[in-house]
Amino acid sequence: MKTIIHKAATRGHANHGWLNSYHTFSFAGYHDADRIHFGALRVLNDDTVAGGMGFGAHPHDNMEIISIPTSGDLEHQDNMGNKQVIRQGDVQVMSAGTGIQHSEKNKNKDKTVEFFQIWVFPNQRNVQPRYDQQSYTDADKYNKLLTVVSPIGTTDGKVHIHQDAWFSLGKLDNDFSTEYKLFKKDNGVYAFIIEGNVTINGISLNRRDGLGITEAEVLSIKADSDAEVLLMEVPMG
């Protein structure tokens, strides 16, 4: 087993006033040659957007983009005709493919919206752009690792991306223990602690810490407090 630990305090940080963003991997003005990506996982941003503010229309191409809100309401609009609001419990995916224009803004003027923005390199270039989202309750994730994202053509998760990648969310009670068995043995897993304290394969992690694990087929996970965890299994090649 090989590991890489990214403590929360070591992340890149940019506060633009309307946007307060922490970057696990190099992004925009933050560059660390040792933290460009973890396998196919390219971006993991922890964003807080002020009331009524947001990202104007901007392009993406050839990237799988996943958004996971943790509070507030994020309004999405794109040039495919989609206009949706995603909230805590939702998972949104966009396959940018040949190119997409979209905007994201805080729907509310009186409170912030907080969400994770995640980019994954695709295994196919120049695909037809697509959009999807799915809602999950806390009960769906309670004391289990619920697969929420999986590859196109599978039924493991309810939203899908063009990559042999699986994302799982768990909302765990203190002292709860479980295991995660990789879908593909040559993949790696990047674990991100959303809330609380968790031990994974003997490594203690705290809120917003990240842990990359390779050359392991099973992860042993124990919640050291009430906790929420996101596991991102991705190809390493």
- Amount of beta strand: over 45%
Radius of gyration from the alpha-carbon trace, in angstroms: 17 Å
How many strand units?
22
**Shape category:** globular
Give the low-pLDDT segments. Answer: none
Helix/strand order:
EEEEEEEEEEEEHEEEEEEEEEE
Describe the structure.
The two termini are about 15 Å apart. The chain has a single domain, classed as Jelly Rolls (Sandwich), CATH 2.60.120.10. The strands form four sheets. The protein has a seven-stranded mixed beta sheet. Strands 2-3-4-11-6-9-12 form a seven-stranded antiparallel beta sheet, with no helix packed on it. Strands 5-10-7-8 form a four-stranded antiparallel beta sheet, with no helix packed on it. The chain has about 240 residues and is mostly beta strands. The protein contains one helix and 22 strands.
Short description:
The chain has a single domain, classed as Jelly Rolls (Sandwich), CATH 2.60.120. Helix content is 2%, strand content 55%. It contains one helix and 22 strands.
Task: Give the secondary structure arrangement, pairings included.
Elements: E1 2-6, E2 12-15, E3 19-23, E4 41-49, E5 54-60, E6 64-71, E7 73-78, E8 83-87, E9 90-95, E10 100-106, E11 113-120, E12 130-135, H1 138-141, E13 146-151, E14 159-161, E15 166-172, E16 177-181, E17 188-195, E18 198-200, E19 203-205, E20 210-214, E21 218-223, E22 227-234
Parallel strand pairs: 13-14
Antiparallel strand pairs: 1-20, 2-3, 3-4, 4-11, 5-10, 6-9, 6-11, 7-8, 7-10, 9-12, 13-15, 15-22, 16-21, 17-20, 17-22, 18-19, 18-21
